[in-house]
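Task: encode each sequence below as structure tokens.

Item 1
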Amino acid sequence: MSLTADKLATEIKVTQYDFDPNSTAATAVAWVDMRDFSKLLVAFFRTIGTSAVTLTIKAGTTSSGGTTATVVTKTVSSEPDAVGDYIFLECLASQVAQKAAEDGYAYRYVSAYVSFATGTDEGVVTYILGGPKFAYDGLTADYVS
């Protein structure tokens, strides 16, 4: 008997991004639309370097950011300073909506922002979008270029 399980792939959307900004400035990883999701979990995984990391989630008015505002910031108690270390940061669509109401902007998109103390550091950033309004096969799909 063959059974294909595809339960989580219909309930969450997972994407991953290689993060190598060659900078110490806070840099957007990837803007995603929160319209059809109620929550976002961001994971940062260290691949190169040992410097301090700042992880923030910002909301924006357009798919490229537009007007932005900080929704949540990670206060790191123990730096992910070795290859293989990882940290998480989460935000809810309700937090994005609250920030939009406070600021008077129509925030709909979110992006993780990562900054390193050393410009040569690198990592992998994973987005896990949950609470979809519409679950369907292929919400999480392979990406091979």
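Item 2
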Amino acid sequence: MANSLELIFAEFGRPQPDVQKFLRWFPGATARVITESDIAFDGPRAGWRLNDYWKARGLWETKAEVAIAFDADMEIVSQDVQTLPILAQRFGLCLPANPRWLVSVDARIGADGDAEIDESGGTGFAMNCSPIAFCRGANFVVVEVVEQCWRILRAHPIRGPLAWWRAAWQARFCPCILPPQWCVCQEHIGIGNEIILHVGHEKVKEFYGTQMCIPRD
């Protein structure tokens, strides 16, 4: 595990995250909870926009060797989560698979999408936005991707997954795409070997029930 590790949460208009629930999986880690912003976004999705923006900016601002941005509505259910800093140190930047798979589908279906598609035609692998693991010292390109992401989100608020794709596309760098077990959405229910559940999806919470809180060896 990293010599220094910071967990980052950006929550706007939602209850404060139970930080200790996450920290117990990462002994020695610190946490930063971002609830105030020096910029503002308009519209009914302002809170989501701030969340995406500050997760990316929080990663970029970290002084830790490795930083992991989490949404508060995630539930860790496996000790395998402790390999995430190792993956970040190896690859520099890790994001989970998006159940919409294609960037074009995520842009078309997801809220805060737009019609801007690059030369790939949106055929790249769509990413999700929790957890996101970053190791600044892995290589210089990942720093460019993270910085470019929050700058995109500040200038032109869009879905977080689209911003991450565009930042990666511009930098010509593909992050390590984590399998669906790292962000189990309703499309992945029952996949097996679950590591993190997205219990903000009601169907996920209902399916796993009380078992989701039981760590597995």
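Check on item 2: The chain is about 35% helix and 20% strand. Strands lie at 5-10, 30-34, 66-69, 74-76, 93-102, 125-127, 132-135, 176-178, 196-198.
End of task.
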